[in-house]
Amino acid sequence: MPSSFRSLLAATSALLSVLAAPAAMAAPAAPAFKPLPAIQAPDDLWDFAQWDGEHHRLLVAHGKDVLVIDPATRHVRAIGQIQYAHAVVPLPGRDRILVTSKFDDSVRILDGASGAEVNRIAVAKDPDATVLSADGHKAYVMAAKAGAISVVDLDSMKETGRIPLKTGLEVAVLASPTLLAVNTEDFNEIELADLATNKPAGTIPLPGCEGPTGLAMGDGGLALSACANGKAALVDIAHRKVVRMLPIGMGPDTVIWDAAHHRFLVPCGESGSLSIIAMDKAGAHVQPAVATGPNARTAAFDPATGRIYLPSARLNPGVKGKPKTVVTGSFRILALSPR
C-alpha cells in the first residue's frame, strides 16, 4: 500500500473517530438559570411564596408574619401577626394580601401598604394552600386536617360554603374556571371539585407518587404533581390519567409553570436544587437541575422577567414534638435569573 494512501486512510479514520465521539464529550450546556445576589431577611420558618405582579413585589408566608419584599431595592418589611402563615396571595385590583393562619383556623386580609389587618375570616381546620377563582372574587382555601375546601367570598369577606374532600389537601390549581384540582398528600391522588356546584367531582390516582404536594397546570390540559419520593406525575386532567412519571429532586413543595419557555420548575428543598421539565410536541424532557440552597422547597416566579425567588435557610436538628428552628442568620431569599 503506497505511503500516501496510508496517510489518507489514517486521516479519514481519525476524522470518523471525532465525528463518532459520544455526545457526552461535548461541552456541557450552560445552566438554565444564573444566581443573583441573595436578599437577607429576618429568621423564621416559612411556607409559600408568591409574586405580586401588580405591585412588583415578592410575598412570603413567614411564620408569624408576611414578608413584603421589593427585589429592586432589596427592602424587606414584615407585616401582620399570624398564627403560622401557610399561603400568601395578592388580591387583584386592590392593595390587599390574603394569608392563611394555620393555628387559629382563619384567613387574614392585610393592607399591603400599612400592613394592618382589615379582615379576619373563620375557615375550616388547618387552612393551607389557597387559589383564587378565575374572576378573583372568591378564594378557595385548602383545609388540610378538615379535608374540605373553604369557599371565601372576597366581596362580603365571609366563608360561604365548604366542599368536602379528603384530608391532606395540598396545592390546588384551576383546571378550568369551574374545575379545581388539588393534591391529596394523605391518599396519593388528585381530588377534583366542581366549583359551579361546590361538590366533589372525582379523583385521579397517582400510582408511584408518594405524598404529592406541589401542582401546576401547563399547556394542553397537562398538570405536573410533585411527589415526596423524587418523582413527579405528568397528569392529563381531562382524561383523568397519569401520562408519565418523571424524576425530580427530593423535598419539593411547589411547582411553577414557566409559560414563556414551556417548562415546569420544581424547587426541591432536600436536594437543594431546581428540577426543570421542558415540554414540547414530543413530550416531556428532563433538563439538568440548577443548584439552589438548603431547604429551598417553595418559590415565587415573576413571569415578566423569568426570575425565581426561593426562601432558604439552614435548620437546626429537630426535637421530638417541637417544630424545627432556623439557624440564626441563615434565612435569605435566593434569586435566579434565566440565561
Molecular structure report:
The protein is mainly β and about 350 residues long. The protein contains one helix and 28 strands. The longest helix is centred in the first third of the chain and has 17 residues, at about 5-20.
- Main β-sheet, in a few words? 4 strands, antiparallel
Large-scale geometry: globular
Low-confidence stretches: 1-24
- Find the count of extended strands (DSSP E, 2+ residues): 28
Class derived from helix and strand content: mainly beta
Distance between the termini: 54 Å
Q: What's the average pLDDT?
A: 92
Elements, N to C (H/E) = HEEEEEEEEEEEEEEEEEEEEEEEEEEEE
Strand content: over 45%
Oligomer: single chain
Into which percent range does the helicity of residues fall? under 10%
Going across the major beta sheet, what is the strand order?
Answer: 1-28-27-26
Query: Radius of gyration from the CA trace?
Result: 23 Å
DSSP summary: helix tally: 1
